[in-house]
Design goal:
Largest sheet: 7 strands, parallel
CATH topology of the largest domain: Rossmann fold
Number of helices: 15
Strand content: 5-15%
Number of strands: 11
Structural class: alpha/beta
CATH architecture of the largest domain: 3-Layer(aba) Sandwich
Distance between the termini: 47 Å
Shape: elongated
CATH superfamily of the largest domain: NAD(P)-binding Rossmann-like Domain
Strand order of the largest sheet: 3-2-1-4-5-6-10
């Protein structure tokens, strides 16, 4: 019996392309790769795969892409950086695709979600039944809305869907969790909170693919949500490998209390920061400009000479040491500080999930790619 054709959306992306590789070259099943922009599909284009160039927000192209497919794996989401466009792709694109899949009578629909549906600062105790948490972050909230679309269709129209909430996914070609942290570690950015001995919820991309394949095969997966993560490793263990590849680069850490102060400064701290901004961005540039003025320059310079040196240094501030640390985006710092464990226990129990690739094996594979890509 010929296996059913599988449609993979977001097939030019990090996870989607790796899934297409596995289905095509490992599982030997018919695949249709759905992608939007040929200019971003160089990695996909090297594969002997049927490609459906489609706009997920256009019903005609989506219906055409679904023709003859019995299984859908939905990896696509908005990545343009335009708020309106990303929301349209992530939420309305999901709705259109799922409704079209129902009309086509698909056997399985695997929706790739993320642990970010619990925000970048999730509660310490969380499982698959914990209510999703809106945070105001566009990506997190859009992924919540996309999930809600799927759950509504499961309840109301029996969409045969499974939701996989993926952890922090790394591996070859991962821009977010391999390329970016390597660059941050090399450049001296903060990459650890409280020395990083707490869980990272890391996920190697091939283990994510394993979970998808199991969700397609297992009848018990329908109507369920699963956290998909590797077995527990800390941020220090994970990023320590990255630092070793970079010749033993230092991992920069700050305390959670320092982070809390940055995210939620007191009124006095906010006023002090405003004062610093006024001093360095407004007052000092004006003073320096006046000092260069032909008419007022002599007067300003004469006044400057009358100011005691210690007062002059205090006015100028230690500008070189104002910010000794380099800070990644605050959302990323919040992820680094989180103490939640997104356990893969349910995926192991119901799906038979591994993870098949251990951290040591995943690190070796990723290092080989990083050296090939000249990142280390």
């Amino acid at each position: 019996m010929r296996p059913p054709k599988i449609l993979v959306t977001g097939a030019s992306g990090f996870l989607g392309c790796r899934l297409v590789e596995r289905l095509l070259l490992g599982e030997r099943v018919p695949v249709r790769a759905m992608a939007h922009r040929p200019g971003r599909a160089a990695r996909l284009a090297r594969l002997p795969v049927e490609v459906a160039w489609a706009d997920i927000t256009d019903s005609t192209s989506v219906e055409r892409a679904l023709e003859g497919c019995a299984v859908v794996v939905h990896c696509a989401y908005g990545t343009s950086g335009n708020r309106k466009s990303d929301h349209q792709v992530t939420v309305e694109g999901t709705r259109l695709l799922a409704e079209a899949a129902l009309a086509c009578g698909v056997q399985r629909f695997v929706h790739v979600s993320t642990v970010a549906v619990y925000s970048y600062s999730p509660p310490a105790r969380v499982d698959e039944q914990t209510p999703l948490m809106r945070s105001g972050d566009p990506y997190c909230d859009d992924k919540i809305e996309a999930e809600e679309v799927i759950w509504d269709l499961i309840r109301q129209r029996n969409l045969p869907a499974t939701v996989l909430r993926m952890g922090n996914m790394y591996g070859p070609f991962s821009l977010i969790w391999t390329v970016r942290p390597l660059a941050h570690i090399r450049d001296g950015y903060i990459t650890l909170i409280d020395e990083g001995y707490h869980p990272s919820n890391a996920l190697f991309v091939d283990n994510a693919v394993e979970a998808i394949l199991l969700a397609i095969r297992k009848e018990a997966a329908i109507g369920e949500a699963f956290f998909v993560t590797d077995d527990e490793i800390s941020w220090r263990t994970w990023y320590g490998r990255y630092a070793a590849w970079l010749g033993g680069a230092s991992l920069v850490s700050i305390s959670s209390q320092e982070l809390k102060t940055m995210l939620h400064p007191s009124l006095a701290q906010r006023l002090r920061l405003i004062g610093q901004d006024i001093r360095f961005a407004i007052a000092l540039p004006i003073w320096q400009q006046l000092g260069r003025s032909q008419s007022l320059g002599p007067l300003v310079n004469a006044l400057r000479k009358r100011i005691p040196n210690n007062v002059r240094v205090r006015i100028k501030g230690n500008q070189a040491g104002q910010n000794p640390c380099l800070f990644p985006p605050f959302g990323l710092l919040q992820v680094y500080a989180g103490r939640a464990v997104f356990s893969n226990e349910k995926a192991k129990r119901i799906l038979g999930y591994g993870p098949l690739v251990s951290f040591d094996q995943a690190a070796q594979i990723t290092e080989c790619w990083a050296r090939w890509a000249r990142l280390v």
